[in-house]
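@channel sequence for tomorrow's demo:
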Amino acid sequence: MEALLKVAKSSDSSEEPLIPHSPVPETPGAQRISVIEDEQSEAHLSSPEDVLKILKSKIPTSTLLEALKFLDPASLENGNFNIIIPSSLAAQILHALITTTICDHWASLGMEHDPKPSYHLPSSQTPQAMLLRCVKSPSGIGTLLAYLRSLLPSQTPPQGKSASSDKGILIQDTLSLLSRLLSPSDLILHLLTDIRRFIDHEVRKQLLWQETISLLASGKVLSISAESLRYTELSVGTSPHSWISDGKLYAAWLGKNISSMASQFSIDDDQAWKYLGAFISRTLSIGQTDQVVNEILHTLLFRKDRPGTENFINLLKFLRQHDQKRILESILRCLERAYLVNLLENEDKIADASISNVSIILSLITRDVVIMKETLKTWLISGIGGSINSVYMRRSLLATFASDPELESLSQIFTKSIDIFGDKLSIKHSPITAQEANAQVILLTAGYLHRLETTNLSSLVQASSYLSAISNRLGAASTRSRFLGMIVGTSLSKLTDKPESRMKFDLAEMESDEASWFLRLSDTQDQVRTITDLEPPHTLSSTETVKKKALKFKHEKMQESSAKPTASKILPLEDSDESNDDGLIPYQKPDADASDSDEDPTLIQRSKPIPPVYIRDLLTYLRDVDNYDRYILGISTAPSLIRRKSGFGSELDEHIRDLALTLTSLHDKYDVPKFQEYRLQSLTTLVVARPLVLGPWIANAFFHIDLSQSQRSSLLVALGLGARELAGYREEDSKAMGLPQVSADASFPSQRLPPRLEIQYDPASKHTPTEVISRNIARNSLEPLALNAVDTLSGPNALKVRTFSSRMEVEKKKREQEQLRRAKSIPKDLHRILFEAFFRPLTSGFSLMMYSTSSYNGNNPFFSPHLLSLFIQTTNLIISTIGPSSVNQLTITSDVLTLLMSLHNSAAATEPTVLSAILSLFLAILDINIASGSSGEERLVNEFAEQVMEMREWVGGIFERTPKGDDQVRMLAAGIMVKLGEVMNRYQGRLFGMNAEFSF
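structure tokens (generated this afternoon):
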């Protein structure tokens, strides 16, 4: 047997090799060998049975090449065997071909070279191209996946135990073959063309196409590839073939293939479009719909030549209604990211151009696809759903409907929006964000109706539904609801009534900038241009990102050898002659000098990066994850650089969103001891520098961007600490942030644990800064009650030198002096900033999430105990920082009580951390209303009596059911009951004209 086997000839052999030597180095640990016979005559293949017979035996490379030429579909002649057509013989040949090629002939076939993307062309006669054409079929792909799965163990290997060297290399080679087979952007088009060309019966065509869909449009490739990479200890992104295990990159590849199919199909070929519709429906199940749709838009519509406009519309028609709605929602998200995400209010020209571009695409959809048109109407009217999150998208949609010659769509939108706007239940229970969106739609629609047909608008305004809507709005309990009613009434009266009879409200809030912005909406008019005027967005498509990543990988591989520094080792000289050392007295080894290591020339780094001085340089440092020195320097210097740039120039304003997103998505790749502290300080500094921009951005990112639990937690903590720092509590909160402090035992470092272990064993590190500050607020609220109780139980005050409660007066005076000192450094419009940029976006986003999701929140990530408790604690910090002096106190109380009513009976409220956070928030809103005086207490008893009494009964039940060991919950519940009792007693006393306490 040994005589029949021989290692593949090296490059210096006298015989010329079949494939040039690959420049890619071999994987260490094992060598690939090729099985070649010494001497064998050339095989004569006349039937597929002969091919199967020789593939099952040990064959030389030349014989394998003859077999590939025989099986190559590109050189198929009449009557020859076609390996693409499914059969039992074809399945056996495919299995033998894959196992034989990968195991024995991988290196000799030159598969380590990157083949040309056009391997499916008949003109390409390389061994790689012939092999890939042979397995380019549903049966071939299925056999390849089955073989790859058979190489994986039935059970996951223990952590730290890697795969065997031979099997690991075999899995990597199989992944490489699969990646190269799937690399063309028109692979699925060729698969469908082959099916329709070589398969006769329609039923067999459908079955084979369903098999293709189950292989490529589902998660089979993703799951098997990801498991294979994990087994071989290859992380996603470190191999050029790992894109088939990355959900986003694989979805982008699917979108490219769908675009290729749609651009090549004839409009009249209904059967082909049905095949494509079935493929797209299954593609939506992998969870990366936005990536697929984004690639389709970039390929068919955003290119300058726009080759597939009609094909794109035809593609939507052949989808099921449910899939049409999912695609439409994804289209809106992609359009908003491409055109509308970075618009500012003062950039009117840029906003008009972007809105016009979005309207062009939406007009194509609403013109030809009726279901999508009706769905867009429903989303506009309700103000919820469809990912319509900005006024710019609403302007684009209404401009699309206004371009319709018939005004029926605008009239329907206006009438139904007015009905929802004036519904009492909607006013009371709908999220404020949805009510604001509804008001914007009414104002924009009224402006279009007024310009297009004034009489139609006048008749709609005179209807009883409109009059009752304005009346219900003006009589609402919420100030925000009343404000929206006044805005709509004033704006529509300005359009339809005479100047002397127009509705007008002489209130301060109607003179604000926000009211002026709302009133200008009715004068907004956006134009819808033709498809030839569509401008592509200035963003890269997903396929270009894939190519850049692949090029980056190759560049890193080329520089890998030169990047590693080499240093010579200095070895001590040993004297073997020990006879001369008998009379020598050994001395103790001297202490090592710490400065010696710095003077070693081999250890000096002469290319140290300098700290960044510009925000764009900081972004470059933070994104350079592979460079340790630049990455660490960027993280450590980010807080100070942001603080310096906050009041200098406009550089921070230009990059603030990119910087915030980069800081949020950072990962602790190098286990930096203070990584979380640096990131939290940077985010907090950004919030303090631009609160009106970062506050709404953080709230939107928290609810709408795909983030992990830790990243969402960082956003909430940064928002809460930023609010506290704006109010002047930076020094008091530095302990909660974990900033380094000089302690008494700082001179004894040997008695302290290393920083990484100290974080794990420090009891204070188990609580987030937000939780610590929230507990301090609750303790300050309950401490006077406890001291008064001690005074009552310890005897009459006349027998005491000093009462316990008198200490609180001293502490109160100190706090008042501290507040006067902080008032000099806080912004004048602090209450407005905290309410508009922090409180309202956060609570509106949560209420909108609660309103739009199902009643069962078991799989809702926002209802995880840690994240929900942190959200409640952040809300507690914000309202406590706002205090009792805000003009929006009524709205704050209403929103907080609504939030508590939606949470106190939920399943998540049974968690100890969530329960304590809910009680602390209820206690904080009570303290704020009590501190605001008798008006706040009367507001609790009169306007919010129903919510307060229900919460009081719930708190009483919590106090009775909580075991005595849980002191924190029982203390909070008892404090709430006592404070509510005092509020009721004082209110009863005022009713009877008495200042003393009164009880029945």
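heads up for whoever presents: The CA atoms of residues 163 and 232 lie 6 Å apart.
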